[in-house]
Amino acid sequence: MTARVARSASLLSTLLATSLVVADEPTPPVPELTPEAQAAAADLKKSLPRNSEARRMLDDILKGAMLGPTDGWFALSKAHTRYPWATLKERFDKNSDGEIAREETSLGEVPFARLDKNGDGVLTDSDFDWSEVTMSRSPANFVFGRSDQDGNGKVTAEEFAELFRRLGGEKEGFISLDEIREQLQPPASSRNDAPPADMPSASTLVLGLQRQEIGSQQPGPDLEAAAPDFTLQTLTGETVTLSKEIGEKPVVLIFGNFTCGPFRTQAGNIEKFYNRYRDQAKIFLVYVREAHPQDGWWMNSNRRIGIDPRQPQNNTERREIAATCQKHLDLDVPFLVDTTDDVVGATYSGMPNRLYVIDTDGRIAFKNARGPFGFKLREAEQALILTIADAAKDRKVGQTR
């Protein structure tokens, strides 16, 4: 009798545990695929290495995952930097107090302040912690999105004034704290949230993976690897070969495209980054395959502001869209336009957006996690500041020999 009770209790315990798991983590239904997507999935299963980032992405798509920051290749792809906190602490923390004061470095006031993410006057591990997801529902992101009406990543005084008007400020001449809280508070998240309105079918995602619209099937060059060489043209027709740009200054490659909303929101950051470091580094924006063309995973958020191109079928069409992108975002950064065979974008895993810092020896000093979740320009900026400092130190040593 006791054994039977024990077995019953064990079974009940198992059932309760199982029911709790099911309640907390509902298993998404296995999606149905169109015949075209079924064929694409079969081809991808044959071609993608089983433990690769791209295979993980395919497997999660086929499981019906919503492809958040913990799904697919986002769960595997991490930022890689030559300058993690542990290395900096060993290198600069001369008094071993767990903090780095500016006096312990050879950095100037401005670059040190750019490294000091939280602005407390010293560098600690928290300044180099970039685990927060870029596309979060933070108040800053939400207010920025409500203000940037033309989707060019830059909020003007006129756009702020328009936001003030839309919030009802003109009626009484001011907006109260409660009105801002009510109207500009990001919506609460829930584990049971419905999929986003722009979430495509599994078939669209499989085909997007096959065409490398949702991201490159390759992981990109590793940290400290030699940067793969390439030759591309600028929008003004100049030819740029990466290996010829390496040597004098560090090189920064920013990969992006017009239809990627998270990339566009970074346009203001990219412009300020370029203006801040254009004399100390060679910075290029590499224009790659569209992430959300109207003949692929199209987005309502793009269509609302008139951004709805088809995927370019030749180099001329891609250059035209790249020129439209540069004009709309009002960017001074030199654009290098990848050809429609997508060799550079695929090699660097640049679709839909990516960041690399390359040192003066042509080695990868920084590589961000896959975009859009891992596209964090301030993280790349920290690596660039330290790469610039190391290059200056090496030049000084070379001059004294």
Structural notes for this entry:
It contains 17 helices and eight strands. An eight-stranded mixed beta sheet has the order 1-8-7-4-5-6-2-3. The longest helix is centred in the C-terminal third of the chain and has 24 residues, at 377-400. It folds into four domains: 2-74, no CATH class; 75-79 and 192-400, Glutaredoxin; 85-128, no CATH class; 139-184, no CATH class. A hairpin with a 4-residue loop joins β2 and β3 (239-241). α2 (35-47) packs across α10 and α3 runs antiparallel to α10. It is globular. By secondary structure, it is α+β, with helices and mostly antiparallel strands.
What's the arrangement of strands in the largest beta sheet? 1-8-7-4-5-6-2-3
Strand content: 5-15%
**CATH architecture descriptor of the largest domain:** 3-Layer(aba) Sandwich
Shape: globular
- Radius of gyration, whole Å: 24 Å
The CA-CA distance between the termini, in Å, is 89 Å
Largest sheet data? 8 strands, mixed
**CATH superfamily of the largest domain, please?**
Glutaredoxin
Structural class: alpha+beta
Number of helices: 17
SSE order: HHHEHHHHHHHEEHEHHEHHEHEEH
Structurally, the number of domains stands at 4
At the first level of CATH, the class of the largest domain is: Alpha Beta
Give the SSE layout.
Layout: H1 2-24, H2 35-47, H3 53-62, E1 80-81, H4 85-92, H5 109-115, H6 139-147, H7 157-166, H8 169-172, H9 177-184, H10 202-210, E2 231-234, E3 239-241, H11 242-245, E4 251-256, H12 261-264, H13 267-277, E5 282-287, H14 300-303, H15 315-329, E6 335-337, H16 343-347, E7 354-358, E8 364-367, H17 377-400
Parallel strand pairs: 4-5, 5-6
Antiparallel strand pairs: 1-8, 2-3, 2-6, 4-7, 7-8
Helix pairs in contact: 2-10, 3-10
